[in-house]
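thread: overnight batch results

M.L. [08:02]
morning all. the overnight job finished for the chain we discussed friday. pasting input first so we're all looking at the same thing
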Amino acid sequence: MEYKLGKYQSLNQETRWASAEELKRSATYIDLSSDKYPTSGLPVISDGYEAYVDGQDTHTLIFGSTGSKKTRLFCMPVINFFIKAGESFIATDPKGELYAKTAGLAKANGYNTIVLNFRDIGKGDMWNPLAIPYKLYNNGNKDEAVSMLNDFVRTIAEPQLKNTNDVFWPEMASSLALANLLLLMDAATPEEANVSSLASLCSNAASDKLSKLSSNMRTDTIAGLNYQNVFTSAEKTLQSIMVSLFGMIRIFTTQRNLTNMLSGNTVDISKFGREKTAVYVIIPDEKNTYHFLVTTFLKQSYEILIAEAQKESSRELPIRVNFVLDEFCNLPQIPDMHSMISAARSRNMRYFLVAQSLHQMKDRYGENADTIKGNCDNWVFLTSKELDLLNEICQLCGKYHTAEGHLRDLISTSELQRLDKAKGEALILHARQYPAISEIADIDAYPMFKGYEAPPLKEYEMPEAKMFDINEFYKAVVNEERPLPFA
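M.L. [08:03]
and the structure it wrote out:
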């Protein structure tokens, strides 16, 4: 038998730097002055006039500490590439810079532009996080609805679960929150199914009515079981559960503009993979108050897009949807993110995850961080002083034999910290290619993207949210004018 694995023999070098020609062969060439691009993706080479991009269905992980130009070198250019290629995207925008730099081009190219603005509430679009679960629940897809509601509850409960050694109270409060959400799904009108109604049901004033109603609910239903587990507790226990619950939903009781924004809906997620859509989620970068809502929106978008892809014979979205998640690890944990990133590729969805450190990712996702990293075929490193990350990058780059026969790292941790920021130097681990250090153009070096002014954010009228009245509902049930849910 002929031996055909010569290139893997130990006498050969383990690694080396990829040549420019190898990078070019592994990517798609784009003349950036063209009206329409053949594809889009991570630039592995770009001078602002020509680029070679990874147009495959590969996920990308970008590491760089604060001030390393992650946004200017990669996020802004790649969003403009999406637009010129006619692809949809959802981008988290911590400072509103992505919108400022790219929304004008999106408008000029006929995009439907959606802005969830948690920095300047009252400008942009309205989104009701309970609207999709309500529709699914009342269309007979109750399991999917309950799954979404569970994710929502997990997200609002995460701060308490993470900051306590006694998870009993937040878990019991989560059970009551889920039961209240299910009551809204079953008994509220579409306009009443909103976070204002949830906040009202979670108040002490509502607990007496809910306790009486729940005594006749079946315990083989999720809501009935959860209600009875809570309301049969001792008085002091119940009071502590209510305190924990109120802490979870306090934001919905103290910020009227926010709850009004979350009670209307101008967003149709199902169209993101069928029409050219640009979604900007603008969040304050100086506080994390609204981050849990961003997480909820991202998870709901993924699930709805998966369902839309399943309707196609190819099981793929007609238009690719790209998730550009700047400050990925500053967001609360996205439930099932490790599974999402595994399944997205075959549905014509890609993730571009931007993180400051490896420690952040491990802290947020625990053992699932390795699965998330492993599903990203493209890694980009800009700068960091985190030793674990530096060592991992060094190991991935490999070792080589010097002329003297010594074995050394292709690049050392010290050398990694000296990549030239002014030149846009980035170490790129692209697919199955050898490592490369490439110079990537800053967003201001792309003349074809200049001159497109972002449209001013529209102001929307925020009528008072319609609320589910537990007192009226209780009276109607007692008078047998309405059926008791879960009975």
